[in-house]
Design goal:
By secondary structure, the chain is mainly beta. It contains four helices and nine strands; from the N terminus they run αββββββαααβββ. Strands 1, 4, 7, 8 and 9 form a five-stranded mixed sheet that branches. The protein has a four-stranded antiparallel sheet with strand order 3-2-5-6, with no helix packed on it. It starts with about 20 loop residues before the first helix and ends in a 17-residue tail after the last strand. InterPro entries: Intradiol_dOase_C (IPR000627), Intradiol_dOase_core (IPR015889), Intradiol_RC_Dioxygenase (IPR050770), Protocat_dOase_a (IPR012786).
Length: about 190
């Protein structure tokens, strides 16, 4: 007489630490350039990745996804093999030895009327058991920022950690703080275990 196997769902197992292998396995040539440097709407998104003590994290990897300047979410293939003109809305960049990253992209447009435009950002790093998700909001439209459901759900001082700073040269500065004072707000999504 054989036993019937149990139909009880198995518990999820914890994720393995991410990296440091990704430093040579995941970056790809041109991954940080969503548009070429000479693109008429090119903007630089850059910043530092910092630990809980404010020290640079020298071995993180960042990915971004975003809408184009008109708020259209791209569906064109080709993110890993750039052709020089197709905007795919995806980029990947490793930080340098000082924890600094740079992307060449465009300011995203709002995906819905009245909504605040943002760039979705994911961080991978040594000692992080799963990737971290956050958003980079553009700073200009105060009304749209005030009406954004995610930002409105946060205390005022925490909202600021998701809003980039526009620099004098037009670039966007967005630092990521992994812990401590001024820690960046990180998001969780349904069915995504941290």
């Amino acid at each position: 007489m054989s036993e019937t196997p149990s139909r009880t769902p198995l518990p999820a197992t914890p994720g393995q630490t991410v990296g440091p292998f990704f430093g040579y396995a995941l970056p790809f040539e041109g991954g940080e350039q969503l548009v070429p440097f000479g693109h008429p709407q090119a903007v630089r998104l850059h910043g530092d990745v910092l630990d809980g003590h404010g020290a640079p994290v020298p071995d993180a990897l960042l990915e971004i996804w975003q809408a184009d300047g008109n708020g259209e979410v791209p569906s064109a293939p080709g993110s890993l093999r750039r052709d020089g003109w197709t905007f795919t809305g995806f980029g990947r960049a490793a930080v340098d030895h000082a924890g600094h990253y740079t992307f060449t992209t465009v300011d995203p447009g709002p995906t819905e009327p009245g909504r605040a435009p943002f760039i979705a950002l994911t961080l991978f790093g040594r000692g992080i058991t799963n990737r971290l998700f956050t958003r980079v909001y553009l700073p200009e439209d105060a009304e749209a920022l005030a009406g954004d459901p995610l930002l409105a759900s946060l205390p005022e001082e925490r909202r600021r950690t998701l809003i980039a700073q526009r620099e004098a040269d037009g670039s966007l500065r967005f630092d990521l703080r992994l812990q401590g004072e001024g820690e960046t707000v990180f998001l969780t999504y349904p069915r995504h275990e941290r």
